[in-house]
Amino acid sequence: MEQEEAETNMQILLDFLNRLRKQKLEELNKIQNDLQYIKEDIGAVEKRSIEFYRAKDRCPMKLRMLVDDSFPAKTLPALIDKHNNGVTTGAHNLQGWMSLANTRNKVDVKAQASSQGFRSKDAYGGSDSAYDTNSGLSAARKRRVHSQFNDLQEFYLQKRQHWAKQFYKQENKDPNAMSNDGYNPGLEDFQSVLNTFTRYSRLRVIAELRHGDIFHPANIVSSIEFDRDDELFATAGVSRRIKVFEFSSIVNEPADVHCPIVEMTTRSKLSCLSWNKYTKNHIASSDYDGIVTVWDITTRQSLMEYEEHEKRTWSVDFSRTEPSMLVSGSDDCKVKVWCTNQEASVLSIDMKANICSVKYNPGSSVHVAVGSADHHIRYYDLRNISQPLYVFGGHKKAVSYVKFLSNNELASASTDSTLRLWDVKENLPPRTFRGHINEKNFVGLTVNRDYIACGSETNEVFVYHKAISKPAAWHRFSSDMADADENVGSYFISAVCWKSDSPTMLAANSQGTIKVLVLAA
Length: 521
Known about the structure:
Elements: H1 2-69, H2 76-79, E1 80-81, E2 86-87, H3 91-116, H4 128-147, H5 149-169, H6 185-199, E3 202-210, E4 221-226, E5 232-237, E6 241-246, H7 247-252, E7 262-265, E8 270-275, E9 282-287, E10 292-296, E11 301-306, E12 313-318, E13 325-330, E14 334-339, E15 347-350, E16 355-360, E17 367-372, E18 377-381, E19 390-392, E20 399-404, E21 409-414, E22 418-423, E23 431-434, E24 445-447, E25 451-455, E26 460-465, E27 473-476, E28 493-498, E29 504-509, E30 513-520
Antiparallel strand pairs: 1-2, 3-30, 4-5, 5-6, 6-7, 8-9, 9-10, 10-11, 12-13, 13-14, 14-15, 16-17, 17-18, 18-19, 20-21, 21-22, 22-23, 24-25, 25-26, 26-27, 28-29, 29-30
């Protein structure tokens, strides 16, 4: 009996050790593959660096030749003794003149560097202050990398492994194929992310807009949106008014109170706005009575009113690719698709949960994302609504917003105080973003190609880079009467909107204050 038990124990131990060896060999194989990627990429980056510095070394030589050629041709003969075939007593003057020219050139280069944001030393020794500034910026960017090293490492390896698989799947392709300049596409993707992530570290206020009594609860801005050309922006909220402002006048003509260029009064409190991306003067709104309205801001009149929703409508969105189509979502658990050419809805999707947000895919008029109170996001092909293409789960509370960064990337916000980034094409595991506080209010969500921004119930705006789980920058709204107002802690950011392809954004809070913010180094 003892011998049998001993043999059994040995067999169990051996089985454990074999399983452990297999696991560690798999981990080692993965690490070896990762190290091979890193080795190849170090070689590619070093090669490009050498080419860059060689080009840089040639540049000062060209600059010197330009300076030499710029000396006045008529001045030199006067300083040269033709009879002695050399430099006369005027040689001292020539040396002084050239010294002065070089001094002036240094000043000119420094001024040019300052005006153009040029931070490296010039060909003649350059500006130490410019060099110091460059060193300071470089050190700051490296610190940002070190502070988010784990996220960046994960993103780099994810991109590298993804492209290795893509090449492996294709016949006659090398898994380690490079782009024309020696970079693997995965490394190209990562460098783009690294460049954008390290470029900014804070939000700077460049303008501020206040209208009405800032401490009146009826000033909450529920939605703020730029028009097609980013020339105008509109606000809407519980004040029952749609206000349209000219962006350039807000930024270039500071004033305590800016007047809207258009103002339209509605019967009910407003929840959402969406500009038509084709017809510049058309904007859609959704309200607390469940009505979806299409407005003409030129005539200040409603063009269409859709009243099929039975409860509060939280969200409305115009299609980018089919500008006559729009979609809405409501507390009646229905998603409805409308066409501006007809009065009744084109399509209706019945769901079992309240709808908080709807959004068209920017590259398609038949794909729609829906965020709902049951903690899920559903991605539909409107040509077959019997079931969604995907159901994305992971949020712990209601999904308050959904927004597309691209045709494949979808961001969501929830009252579980997280944002998530989903891939609607590959259905990959999401990235989760944490740092802001959002437990009960609609605090806004806006996206561009690289950044996701949202509000917080701490009266702050948070900006995340799409590859990094922690905030890249944030800004706190302050109250002029913060010390005197006992309710200051209840204020929150209520709406945010990026300016297209720009580091500039609009943010509004529950006091009715609107700020123009820009990402800065």
